[in-house]
């Protein structure tokens, strides 16, 4: 792009001056290139950084002396079944009828909040949740369940292996 | 009435400031850029409300999808050190070239007995090569456990810091695979690890 000469004609004759070259450099092309590269780098960088959800497992230990027994009345078991279904019951398997619910706001979260309050009121202690994923559940189910723990601020929970009796429960209700 | 003469102005705009800004941004993006690592299998990460970002250093990442497990560790020095230790363990002598190649491989999913052949491939062929995943049987052939243990040792000796273990799994991944990996962690007394999740914007409660 040429700079327009706006300096006017100038005097005729007189001394012959060497023509002053403009010190301005045309930057248009350079800016074009810079923006092109910016666009490229914006596109290739990962925009959202992955988030990490911390999981702490109870230490598998041979000596059991540090372990405290938890009353059945304040332990809630969540069985993760197939087809995005959850079964929950309080206490030991077989003694109370499990209920099948969904994940999410109106399913698992509601139950967790309700039961947490109930148990807090009746026993004066916090609820302990055991998450038992069955072999038919998937990774998303596990993450969802753990996420519900974080949302409902349940501090004491554990991922535990499922018992055969509990698999039977899932099978009976068609969630396995 | 005399005609008002409009002074002719140059149509060129001063681009200096714009150029400055553009290059400033460019520098910023170049410095912060981290090339996206391609997952060897398609992975759809579940969403959660977790808000802690994954740290950039001293991280071991296990990518789990379609029943296969892939191994990633950050840092070329750690990768090299880990490979050397693994070589000692499995009695495989790696050439310096192979070590160099290995330190540039972002995601690894090859059994030990195929690793040398894999590292000898051309760059293009290595990209196309379908990695079978690291064997992680709980009985005899548990290479994944060795990889994890050796990386932990390497990080401890080189950076003097604990290694963070994280799992990046596919939504549809069945639980037994996850269970096996958690089992491997527990055997090595890794009680704290993290699941990588995407961000879910949901009002709390």
Automatic annotation (TrEMBL), chain A:
- InterPro entries from the xrefs? ExbD
Annotated Pfam families: ExbD (PF02472)
Chain ranges passing through the membrane: 27-47
What domain of life does the native source organism fall in? Bacteria
* Topology term for the membrane: Single-pass membrane protein; Single-pass type II membrane protein
Q: Does the keyword Transmembrane helix apply?
A: yes
| Coiled-coil annotated spans | none
State the UniProt keywords alphabetically: Cell membrane, Membrane, Protein transport, Transmembrane, Transmembrane helix, Transport
The subcellular localization recorded is: Cell membrane
Q: Which family does it belong to?
A: Belongs to the ExbD/TolR family.
Q: What is this protein called?
A: Biopolymer transporter ExbD
Q: Which organism is it from?
A: Mucilaginibacter rigui
From TrEMBL, chain B:
Pfam annotation, one family: ExbD
Q: What is this protein called?
A: Biopolymer transporter ExbD
Q: Which UniProt keywords apply?
A: Cell membrane, Membrane, Protein transport, Transmembrane, Transmembrane helix, Transport
User: What family classification does the UniProt entry report for this protein?
Assistant: Belongs to the ExbD/TolR family.
Transmembrane ranges? none
Q: State the annotated membrane topology for this chain.
A: Single-pass membrane protein; Single-pass type II membrane protein
Q: Which organism is it from?
A: Mucilaginibacter rigui
Question: Is Isomerase one of the keywords?
Answer: no
Please state where this protein is localized.
Cell membrane
Lineage summary: Bacteria, Pseudomonadati, Bacteroidota, Sphingobacteriia, Sphingobacteriales
């Amino acid at each position: 792009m040429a700079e327009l000469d706006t300096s006017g004609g100038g005097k005729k004759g007189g001394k012959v001056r060497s023509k002053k070259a403009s010190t301005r450099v045309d930057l248009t092309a350079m800016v074009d290139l810079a923006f092109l590269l910016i666009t490229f780098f914006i596109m290739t960088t990962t925009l959202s950084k992955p988030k990490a959800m911390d999981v702490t497992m109870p230490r598998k230990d041979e000596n059991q002396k540090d372990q405290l027994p938890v009353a059945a009345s304040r332990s809630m078991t969540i069985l993760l079944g197939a087809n995005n279904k959850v079964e929950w019951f309080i206490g030991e398997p077989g003694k109370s009828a499990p209920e099948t619910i969904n994940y999410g706001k109106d399913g698992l979260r509601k139950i967790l909040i309700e039961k947490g309050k109930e148990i807090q009121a009746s026993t004066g202690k916090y609820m302990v949740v055991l998450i038992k994923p069955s072999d038919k559940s998937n990774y998303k189910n596990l993450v969802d369940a753990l996420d519900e723990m974080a949302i409902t601020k349940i501090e004491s929970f554990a991922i535990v292996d499922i018992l055969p009796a509990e698999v039977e429960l899932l099978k009976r209700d068609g969630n396995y | 009435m005399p005609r008002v003469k409009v002074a002719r102005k140059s149509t060129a705009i001063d681009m200096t400031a714009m150029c400055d800004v553009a290059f400033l941004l460019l520098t910023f993006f170049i410095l912060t850029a981290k090339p996206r690592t391609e997952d060897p299998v398609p992975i759809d990460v579940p969403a959660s409300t977790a808000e802690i970002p994954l740290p950039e250093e001293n991280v071991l990442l296990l990518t789990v999808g379609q029943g296969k497990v892939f191994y990633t560790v950050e840092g070329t020095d750690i990768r090299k050190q880990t490979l050397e230790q693994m070589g000692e363990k499995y009695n495989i002598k790696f050439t310096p070239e192979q070590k160099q190649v290995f330190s540039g491989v972002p995601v690894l999913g090859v059994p030990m007995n195929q690793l040398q052949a894999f590292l000898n491939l051309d760059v293009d062929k290595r990209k196309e090569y379908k990695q079978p995943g690291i064997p992680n049987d709980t009985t005899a052939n548990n290479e994944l456990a060795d990889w994890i243990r050796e990386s932990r040792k390497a990080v401890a000796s080189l950076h003097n810091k604990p290694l963070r273990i994280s799992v990046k799994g596919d939504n549809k991944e069945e639980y037994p695979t996850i269970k096996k990996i958690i089992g491997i962690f527990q055997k090595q007394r890794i009680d704290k690890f993290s699941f990588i999740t995407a961000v879910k914007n949901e009002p709390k409660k």
